[in-house]
Amino acid sequence: MSESVDSWSDERVQAELEAVLADLQTLEEHLVEPLTLADAIAELETTRAMYEHAAVEV
Fold this sequence. Notes:
With 58 residues, the chain is mainly α. The chain has helices at 10-30, 38-57.
């Protein structure tokens, strides 16, 4: 049975978001005809920043 995302710590969520962001940025760099991933990347960066900010406040 897979682990519930709800049980992840903020640090784990942030690490996963950073990994996905890095993967998207790498994918975009290697595409011959880049997709419009800018919106998805910006959204992930915003979400990651929110987790960073929340972790600092705790």
